[in-house]
Target: Alanine--glyoxylate aminotransferase
Amino acid sequence: MAKVSPPPECLFKPMNFPHKVLMGPGPSNCPPRVLGASALPMLGPMHPEFTLIMDEVKAGIKYIFQTNNEWTVCVTGSGHAAMETACLNLLEPGDTVLVGINGLWGERFADMVHRQGIDVKTLHRPTGEVFTFEEIEEALKKHKPTLLSLTHGESTGGTLQPLEGIGTLCHKYNCLLLVDSIASCGGVPLFMDLWGIDCLYTGAQKVLSAPSGASPISFSKRAKEKVKNRLTEVRSLYFDMNHLANYWGCDGEARRYHHTGPTSCIYAIRESLAVLAEQGLEESWKKHKHCAELLYEGLEKIGLELLVKDKSIRNPCVTVVKVPDGVDWKSVIEYTRKTYRVEIGSGLGVLVGKVWRIGLMGYNCTPDNVRLVLRVLEEALRVTRTAKL
Ligand code: PMP
Model:
C-alpha cells in the first residue's frame, strides 16, 4: 500500500478565537441567538422541516426588502454570489448595461458584466459622491441600457445613493433597475416595490449580523419576465434563477433538489431576520440614524473629518473618516486591534491609506459601541502620534 502522508500538525491544536469587536464595514459580530441557531442539528435540503425554515426566510426577506415579489430567495454564497446571480440571470449578449461607479462595488459589477461578454457603459462619480437624477437620465438617454446598476450603500465611500424616482425613470426608458443594498438594507429606509427596484440583493453579515454564506435576492415581475424571455440559457447552472426559484418554492411547482443549501447559514439568517422583525424596520432605521449621529459628533470632537460632507447622503451603516495629515493609518488600526481587539476598517480601492471605515450595523450598532470606538480611536491617535516624536 502507498505510504500515507502524515496529518497536518496544525489540526492537533485548538483553533484561536480572540473575541473581537468588529467595527469595520463588515462582517458584524453575531448575536448569541444567531450563533446558537447556526449550531442546530443538520437537516437535509429537501426535508419538510428545512423547507419550512426556507419559507420563513423568504417571508423575512420580503419584509426587509418591503416587497411582494414571488422570486425572493437566498443564494448560496457571500454577497458576491448575489451580484453574480443578478448579472448572470438578467443579462445576455445583446444587452447593454449601465453601471454607476462611485466606489469598488460598481467597479466589481462592471467587471462581472464584462466577463460575460456583455456591453458595459459606466457612469462615474468620485468615491464619496452620489449620482444625480439628471445625470442618470442623461446616461439612460445616451446609452439606452437594458439594465442600470446602482449601489445603495457604497461601503467604499460611505455614501447612500438616493433611489426614489430612479425606478420610474428607468422604466420610462425601458430599463431595469438593479440595486446593491449589501451595506444598507435593514439600516436605512428601503422600499423595493414602492421605489420600482427590479432586482435587489443584500448580504447576511452586515445589518443582519449573521455569518456570511447565504445572500437574499429578489426579482420584480419585470425582472422575472426578462429572465423567462431570455434567448440564451443562463450561463450558470448553480445561479440559474429558474432552478433557484423552484428550489425555494417560488414557482408553485413541487420543489426539486438543486443543491445542498448552506443549512447552518440558513438557520442563522432565519434567526437574524426574526431579530429584525421583532425590533421592526422603523426602529432599526431610527437606531442606525441615532448611533451614526453620535459617531459623527464624536469624530468631529476629536478633530476628525468625514469624507462625505453632505449629511443627507451619508450611509449611517458605514462612516468613512479621513486620515489626518501626518498620521500613520496602519499604526492606528493595529493599535486598536492589539490593545482593545476593536477592529476598524481600512480604506478600499483609491482610498487605501487615506481613510478609515467604521461600521455601525445591526447587533454592533449601539451607543456603547460608538463610545468604545471613539475612545480607542482617540487614544490610538494620541499614542501613535507621540510614538513618532
Ligand atoms: N457590495 C457592497 C456594497 C459591499 O459592502 C460588499 C461587502 N463589503 C459586497 C458587495 C460584497 O459582499 P461579500 O464580501 O459578502 O461577497
Q: What stands out?
A: The chain has two domains: 21-27+281-388, 32-277. Residues 25-26, 78-80, 105, 151, 153, 155, 180, 182-183, 203, 212 surround 4'-deoxy-4'-aminopyridoxal-5'-phosphate (CB under 6 Å). Residues 21-27+281-388 form a domain with the Aspartate Aminotransferase, domain 1 fold (CATH 3.90.1150.10).
